[in-house]
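[agent] plan:
  1. take the single chain provided in the ticket
  2. run structure prediction with default settings
  3. attach structure tokens to the ticket
  4. add a short note for the reviewer (M.T.)
[agent] executing step 1
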Amino acid sequence: MKTVCVNASKQYEVKIGTGLLDTVGQEAAALLRGRRAVVVSDTNVAPRYLQRVLDSLHTAGFSAQSVVINAGEASKNTDTFVKLVNAFADAGLTRADAAFALGGGVVGDATGFAAACYLRGIDYIQIPTSLLAMTDSSVGGKTAVDLPSGKNLCGAFHQPSLVLCDPDTLSTLPAHFFADGMAEVIKYGVIRDAALFKTLCTKDIQTVLEDVVARCVQLKRDVVQADEFDHGVRQLLNFGHTMGHAIEQSSNFTISHGHAVAIGMVLASKAAGQAEIAEEIRVCCERYGLNTACPYDTQTLLPGCLHDKKTSGTVIQVVEPQKMGHCVTRAIPTEQLADWIMRGVEK
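[agent] step 2 finished; step 3 output follows
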């Protein structure tokens, strides 16, 4: 088992190892004063893993209930948020108790936001079951739901109390969901670690999966500790996301987050004038089944990009690679955003 310690506004551990799913109760009992729990999962994950987590909690002395939401981005909305906080209240959770997020990024984001708001903040424990959630969304405390006008526009910074990553859960992950996660893994290589990017391009990922997850968590930990509230260096984690989120929204979420980010990374590299890096990213992404061809033009993507949460007044922060393993943020006036998108889309 590997352990990464995060020292943000709250200190917590990210544990990565096979078999951790059956230790949830034991791990939680060592952290929490209370013994009430609500486990949130979705219709894909719950049939496989929910009962194991509930059994572990019951064995450790918890009174545990569950809420299952529909799988998919469409559930990451304000209706789900209200459903979750009401479930916490119905279960009688106090500030000594906790919510548990068992699933991918949608479950983790929605559960974390509900936990941030219920009683003005209760503990929550992340149990990510997708590669995307293990390597990215479960760590760092960004929680949110979507609004009709854009992704993640209603949320809060709320760090988890513990993250338990069991790579065994990835063995049942459909190929397209694993590919989604690989987009975020590739992103870490491009922005912070050229050696990691080379590993992804040359090695069988299954033989180094636990090491790769741990390395991504370490990289995100370092960024979060330097800039927890997303005012500076943490914005590097948005590489590929400005256009990626616009692609998701333009497709009515028929293009998944990871696939959209893969396209967005290639477009952002082209927009930055880094055609060679764009080609390296394209080849690596396609190795993992990620299509990088953009189906939309500039005018289709522009509204979604303008509603991006990285827009501040009349300026938006974009992330551009300078060399493999090193990206920078650049502020551009929103009136120039269409030209920036066009350089990516039309080259």
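[agent] step 4 note for reviewer: The longest strand covers residues 315-323.
[agent] ticket updated
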